[in-house]
Design brief:
This protein has 231 residues and is of the alpha+beta class. It folds into 3 domains: 3-74; 84-177, L1 transposable element, RRM domain (Alpha-Beta Plaits, 2-Layer Sandwich), CATH 3.30.70; 178-230. Helices cover 50% and strands 15% of the residues. It has helices at residues 3-30, 32-82, 109-121, 154-163, 180-192; strands spanning 86-90, 130-136, 146-151, 173-176, 198-202, 205-209, 217-218. Strands 2-3-1-4 form a 4-stranded antiparallel β-sheet. The protein has a 3-stranded antiparallel β-sheet with strand order 5-6-7, covered by helices on one side. It is rod-shaped, with a radius of gyration of 38 Å.
């Protein structure tokens, strides 16, 4: 075979190989495998780009959420401090009486509080010690609404809080006048560690005492429960 013939056959073979390669490449580019690979690669690249753009905003949002929470806690602390002389008394029936026409007279809540302290707690509270007293909330099964009492001094309030243990086992209660936020937090804390520790309030603070030889810890938010072992 002449040199020209060999060269021609070589060129034809190269052309055939190139055609086969191009055909296979075209088939692969049109195949579902390539489309899936392309889609996954695009998603991965796009996710990376989005993550880079979004991350600074996520960090800023987290920071702002923490700042908002701190402001809410500060406002709640201020509101709770404004209630530092307040107590709520539950289970005391209304001391109303009928007038000469058969209508109920308006209850003297000051008198009701004074008599409750004398008869149920065994302490004397004078009229001058009370700033305000009135009924709040919905009535219980016996028709009695809670009494909210604002004293003129912390010492007057403290007398009730010290002696409220005398009501144990009865359907009478003396509690601190907690803000709505603290009421909800107290309920969640009690539900979360029921039977594991003693939960109580003092001066508007929600406290948990695990062992007698350890001081109680203050719970300001739900995440505080994760910092302590209440098992």
């Amino acid at each position: 075979m002449s040199l020209v013939g060999v060269k021609t056959r070589s060129n034809n073979a190269q052309a055939d190989i190139q055609e086969v390669v191009q055909s296979e490449i075209s088939k692969y580019l049109m195949s579902s495998d390539f489309k899936e690979l392309l889609r996954d690669s695009f998603k991965e690249a796009l996710s990376g780009m989005i993550a880079q753009v979004v991350k600074p905003f996520e960090e800023k949002i987290i920071k702002l959420e923490e700042e908002v929470l701190q402001l809410e806690e500060k406002c709640n602390d201020n509101e709770q401090y404004s209630r530092r002389y307040n107590v709520r008394i539950y289970g005391v029936n209304n001391s109303t009486s009928a007038d000469s026409y058969g209508y109920d007279t308006k209850e003297d809540c000051f008198k009701t509080v004074i008599e409750f302290c004398r008869n149920e707690l065994g302490i004397e509270v004078k009229h001058e010690e009370i700033d305000r007293a009135h009924r709040v909330g919905k009535p219980n099964r016996d028709g009695a609404r809670a009494l909210i009492v604002k004293f003129k001094s912390y010492e007057s309030k403290r007398k009730l809080m010290i002696n409220k243990r005398k009501l144990k086992g009865r359907k009478l209660y003396v509690n601190e006048d907690l803000t709505w936020m603290n009421q909800q937090l107290l309920k969640r804390v009690r539900d979360a560690i029921a039977g594991k520790a003693y939960v109580f309030t003092a001066d508007g603070y929600i406290l948990v005492k695990v062992k007698p030889d350890r001081p109680p810890v203050r719970i300001r938010r739900d995440s505080d429960l994760l910092r302590y072992d209440f098992e």
